[in-house]
Amino acid sequence: MRIKNKKELEKGQVMILTAIFFVAFSSIVIFGFVTPMIKQTKITSDLWDTKKSFYLGESGAENVTFLVKKGFDISLNNMLPLINAKSGDSVFSTTTVNPLDGSKTVITTSHINGYTRKTQVTLVPGTGASFSYGIQTGTGGLTMDGGQINGNVYSAGDIIITRSGPKITGSAVVSGNGKIQGYNVNNKLSIGTGDIGDAYAHTVNSANVAGNLKCQSGTGNNKSCNTSFPDPASAPFPISDSSISNWEAEALAGGTIGTFDAGTYKTWFLGPKKINGNLLLSGSSVVNVTGTLWVTGNIIFDGNSKLNLSSSYGASSGVVVADGKVVIPNSCSANGSGISGSYLILVSNSTLDGTGGTYAIKTTGSAGSMVLNAQKGAIYFNGSASANQVTANKIVIDGGTINYQNGLVSPSFVSGPSGSFNITSWKELEN
Description:
8-stranded parallel barrel; alpha/beta; 36% strand; Pantoate--beta-alanine Ligase, Chain: A,domain 2; 431 residues; 33 strands; 2 domains
């Protein structure tokens, strides 16, 4: 065996050292290229995760905003569904209501791989129907056998007083060639308060008018007719058919159930919903309306039952529509959310005109922050009943009080064609 000489050994050592230096140099070069690539990949992945979190939050905000505009109750925290969600991914929304103006603030928070993005949407309720009078009737007119109206009255038919005692604290207007007829010359209808409150009709008889008396003819009044004014023009009803159709559509969007019997001592949260049948309340039952209701049958109260708007409505008003009649006896009530400016508006599409004592809406001793509307039929008001506004083709008042609220000139709704929430701001919040 041949022994390597010194030169061969040195040559081998040089080759080994060269190889080591080459590997080391190559590693440094490769590391110099790979490290920025890894960092860039990580940056790109993080950027993509935060963008995904942002778009997930935006999607959640759009979802909740849609629900708000459709009148769903979303006052509580809402965990929103995720598609192909990974562990640790989440998106939820919180909705707060300003009790002063009924506006809602939606804050949606999304998390993906530790990256959090927040979106805030502010919505304010739009203007709904305008109720300009305490009482408004169609051609069926207004008959008063008692009671008091604290506000103005507009009627497309005659205003007839059948006994002494009824009072209108504001103005009374009858369009066209209609008339205002007090009980008799010794028991005049009182119109106005102090020196404010006009009587305005083609004919006015047996009235004690605080303000101006505008008429073409009249007898038994406390002052002479000012004949320089033409007969009053007609005024449209406050709620259009298209508004009612839209409310019905909103209720239908929440699903359909059969006749709903609230029982005797139960508390419920209901809406938006179409009830294909009757809505029955009895005993001390309470139904809290969380969205627009459409009842294809009748709404019947009994005992001391209550129909209330959910507190989520804030200062906004809500609507319950019935195709049939609404009966609200003594000790029952229909109420807004409990915040000033919130009213429950009960609408009947019934054409019942009072023949045989059957009315579209009949209330005898009920109360609450409610508005009653039966523009195709008649409303009967009796006993110690009270309401904030009453509209119908025909109204008969045997007793009770109408306390008109100025806010009804332009109430806010959480739903409806002109009452849907409007978006005033949409922005991302800093974490």
